[in-house]
Amino acid sequence: MNNVQNKKRANKSLPFFFKDEFKVFFIIIFFSTILLISTFTFDKVPPILNRGIQPATFPKGLLILIMFLTTIIYYLSFKNPWKKEKKLPKPFFLTILSFILFVVISKTLDFFLAISVLSIFVSYNWGEKRVFYLLLVGIIFPLVVFIFFEMILGLRFPPGIITNLYYY
Amino acid sequence: MMAPLFSSKLLIVLLFGTLFGLILGVLPGLGPTTGGALILPFTMTLDPLSAIVLLTSIYCAGTYGGAITAVLINTPGTPAAAATCLDGYPLAQKGEAGRALGMATVSSTVGGIFSVIVLVFFAPVLAKLAYEFGQPEYFALAIFGLTMLASIGEGSPIKNLIAGAFGILISTIGKDFMTSIDRFTYGINELSVGIGFIPVVVGLFAISEMLTQSTLLDQVFKRVALKAVKLPSLDDYKKTWKTILRSSGIGSFIGVLPAEGGTVASLIGYSEAKRFSKEPEEFGKGSIEGIAGAEAANNAATGGAMVPTLALGIPGSATTAVILTGLIIHGVRPGPDLFREQPDFLYGIFGAMLIANVLFFIFGFFGAKVFARITLVPNKILWPMIFAVSVCGTYSLSQSIIDVWIMLFFGVLGFFMRRFGFSVVPVIIGLILGELVEGTLRQSLVIFDGNWLMFLTRPIALTFFILSLIALAFPLLRSKKQKN
After folding, report:
1. B171, B196, B251, B412: which could form a disulfide with B265 (CB 3.0–4.6 Å)?
2. DSSP readout, B148-183?
3. pLDDT at B198
4. Which contacts of B472-479 are long-range, i.e. CB under 8 A and separated by 24 or more positions?
């Protein structure tokens, strides 16, 4: 209990733009506003064909509702500040980096290679240094999954430098 | 009722589903929702009944499996087992892990079977009632579902409402189903068919959990030794039978409401067990009633959550949202017509849930020790493997790499949502209800000639709106009461 209160106090002493409450409020309002603006670019149904409401009306309503509710939670956070979250550790950022690597490799080189690289990268950065286990998670297991999906579901994976070797 | 289940193929599916569900339940961070979403592509190789039997058996066994980890390592395998930790682990620390797991197994089985009976009797009644529903009533019902989700779901009701609205907003991406006008596609062709359910579920549950695990690498679990699961003694039965029955009723009722199913049910089941107990001071110190109250309730929520899913096509929990997707993928449209046209299919599901409850009792009783060992697989090995399955599973449904990227995006989003107290469950429910909400609203407005007030002239719709208002007011009243 005391810990939570201390954390709350710690969060209270920060300038408002550093507080989680403001960051969350700002991000939601920012993206909702962009989306709301984009709803004005949706095509409109001609009045003669229009039955009920325009296609943009419903998403507009939802976005306004989200912005309204976000304002309420931000207002309520003045009375009850959120507890300050722990700093994110290095493995978290490395895992995010592995996702980016995955997207880049799967787009440019190969889908299977992307899975292998991510698996080895994550496993290694999470503390696995034994080569056998790295090979297990990075090559043997993805290969089993790949063949399983291919054989059971008849799935055709996207072409790439390694996948092509399997198919041709 | 059970006739279709006596085929060897269905029994194998049931056995596999129960075992797989137990493994998913035991592993912290995974669970029946993620597991169901991951296995959904494989169900394409099965007939509709086998596919749904597989998903429901995973649901039942996965909900129970969470108790094993809750008792032995003080970490709920599934969120629904959180309340089981409170007394399960202290009892295990006293050297009575077998007794704690025995009670968890028995009460889960009783709760599960009780809820299947509720499902068998209540779902057809609700389905008949649904014949009275038109578009305005379905709209009001969907709104009621979302407000209930916000009101009794985990965490802040306003944050839950935002998450639910966000889920509905995702469902509007793509071509508008009434006019074929593109919305939020920004010229990307792949988005014109909308965002699939599976990439969002796998992202929000599996990938966001992977990110969460990356922040917990220094966490060390202390596992309590388990010799064997023991059936509860006569004294334990005498002490807990009322609690088990009460929690079974509570769980079934909470399950029927479109909320977070087992998680909320187990918390209420636990607190009611404490309220009615002759030894409330024992709760938190290893009370056998506490275990019974939480476990009977969370497993009873499984059958309850299937009631609106099958009768109305409105999921009662995140896992039933996956089951609903499974039904739709296999061309089965839930609702009153299903009860009239395919009773064999439904009774197959009811029977399968009943058998799944018996099977997890047997597996849990004899195999808990083995299942507990699964928790020893280190995260640095387990999660890269789960990632590989998630990626291939997500890709397989529409064979689109964009779906995999969408999954990663929702994984990161889900992580931050959970970090800042937004539950991801309302997003899933909102996404699956989105088309129903918008479609019924727009069709109702066509019927009413654009007059919104006409909703109030429909008694059933009006009742649901009033219930929605009550659901929204409930958290306010609760917090006022707590302050007082």
Report:
1. B251
2. HHHHHSSS-HHHHHHHHHHHHHHHTSEE-TTT--EE
3. 84
4. B472/B147, B472/B150, B472/B151, B472/B157, B474/B151, B474/B152, B475/B151, B475/B157
Find the CB nearest B442 among A52, A73, A115. Answer: A52
In Å, how far are A76, B35, B43, B322, B328 from B49, measured between CA atoms? 48, 18, 10, 15, 12
Summarize chain B as % helix, strand, coil (round to 5).
Answer: 80, 0, 20
For residues B196-222, one letter each, b for 16 or more C-beta atoms within 10 angstroms of the residue's C-beta and e for the rest, the string is bbbbbbbbbbbbbbbbebbbebeeeee
Cα–Cα distance measured from residue B7 to residue B14, given in angstroms and rounded to the nearest whole number: 11
Which residue, A85, A146, A87, is CA-closest to A112? A146
Q: Say yes or no: B169 contacts chain A, CB-CB below 8 A.
A: yes
> What residues 28-57 of chain A have any CB closer than 8 A to a CB of chain B?
28, 35, 38-39, 42-43, 45, 49, 51-53, 55-56
Which residue is it, tokens 């939670």?
A73
Tell me: the pLDDT tens digits for B137-180? 888 888 888 887 777 666 788 888 899 999 999 999 988 888 88
Task: Label residue A15 exposed, middle or buried (CB < 10 Å: 0-12, 13-18, 19+).
Answer: exposed
Q: Over the Cα atoms of chain B, what is R_g?
A: 22
Q: Using alpha carbons only, what angle is made at residue B168 by residues B465 and B137, rounded to the nearest 5 degrees?
A: 30
| Smallest CA–CA distance from A72 into chain B, residue | B158
Question: Domain-by-domain residue ranges, chain A?
Answer: 2-79, 90-167
For the cut 60, the answer to whether the pLDDT of residue A12 exceeds it is no
Question: pTM of the entire structure?
Answer: 0.85
User: DSSP string covering A105-158, please?
Assistant: HHHHT-HHHHHHHHHHHHHHHTT---HHHHHIIIIIHHHHHHHHHHHHS---PP
Please give the torsion angle defined by the CA atoms of residues B473, B474, B479 and B481, in that order, rounded to the nearest 10 degrees. Answer: 110
DSSP string, B402-444: HHHHHHHHHHHHHHHHHHTT--SHHHHHHHHHHHHHHHHHHHH
Q: For residue B395, which residues of chain A lie inside 8 Å, CB to CB?
A: 111, 155, 157
Task: Give chain A positions within 8 Å (CB) of B178.
Answer: 51-52, 55
CB contact under 8 A, A155 and B214: no
Q: How confident is the model at residue A1, as a pLDDT?
A: 42
User: Contact B289/B105 with Cβ under 8 angstroms?
Assistant: no
DSSP-derived 3-state class of residue B28 = strand
The DSSP code sequence of B119-154 is HHHHHHHHHHHGGG--HHHHHHHHHHHHHHHHHHSS
In which band, very low, low, confident or very high, does the pLDDT at B237 lie, cut at 50, 70 and 90? confident
Specify which residues B30 forms β-bridges with: B28
Mean pLDDT on A111-131: 91
Q: Are B204 and B428 in contact (CB under 8 A)?
A: yes
Burial class of residue A22 in the structure, from the number of CB atoms within 10 Å of its CB (0-12 exposed, 13-18 middle, 19+ buried): middle
Are the C-beta atoms of B246 and B276 separated by less than 8 Å?
A: yes
